[in-house]
Amino acid sequence: MKFEPLEIEGIILVTPQVFGDERGFFMETWQRKRFAEAGIDAQFVQDNHSMSGRGILRGLHYQIRQPQGKLVRVISGEVFDVAVDIRKGSPTFGKWIGVTLSADNRRMLWIPPGFAHGFYVLSERAEFLYKVTDYWAPEHERCIIWNDPEIGIEWPLIDGMAPVLSEKDRQGAFFRDAECYS
């Protein structure tokens, strides 16, 4: 397995070793000891699975209390996955990072607590899996608007069309007004 720290401290791109032959493939997606040695010493409490169609954007979500670290991957289709640093004391506060995750590249992204997270579906549909380090707490859930000009995420929008959003995501706060981590 390859662990690649990205430009924002704490975010790690994970590329698993894939063993394949005429029967298909096998890959390890989580092994506590190996991940801990790479700096991801997480205790996961819940696995989530979502399916979304092309042009759907989910995010930018976080929990202000019970913050969640997330290990995310795509098992069908392709997404552009984004993490925004919302840790007030961080030198990269307000900065974002985006990577393409797909069933073909099999990459995973580790997003530690302290980040808002979202993804945009590039394929006809995508199935998205993520392990989290704390339980879902709807009373603590927050959302930053996906197109906040202060953050300036460069979403690869299909044909420049506006993404499909949930009502909650349409009502996201601007970054300047959002509750952030101290």
- Percent of sequence in beta strands: 35-45%
Spatial ordering of strands, largest sheet: 1-2-10-7-12-5
Low-confidence region ranges: none
CATH architecture assignment: Sandwich
CA-based shape: globular
Largest sheet: 6 strands, antiparallel
Span between termini: 33 Å
CATH superfamily: Jelly Rolls
Give the C-alpha Rg. Answer: 16 Å
Total number of helices:
2
Look at the structure and give the mean pLDDT: 97
Q: What's the total count of β strands?
A: 13
Tell me the structural class: mainly beta
Question: Which CATH top level class fits?
Answer: Mainly Beta
Determine the CATH topology.
Jelly Rolls
Number of domains: 1
Helical content stands at under 10%
List the secondary-structure elements in sequence, H or E.
Answer: EEEEHEEEEEEEEEH
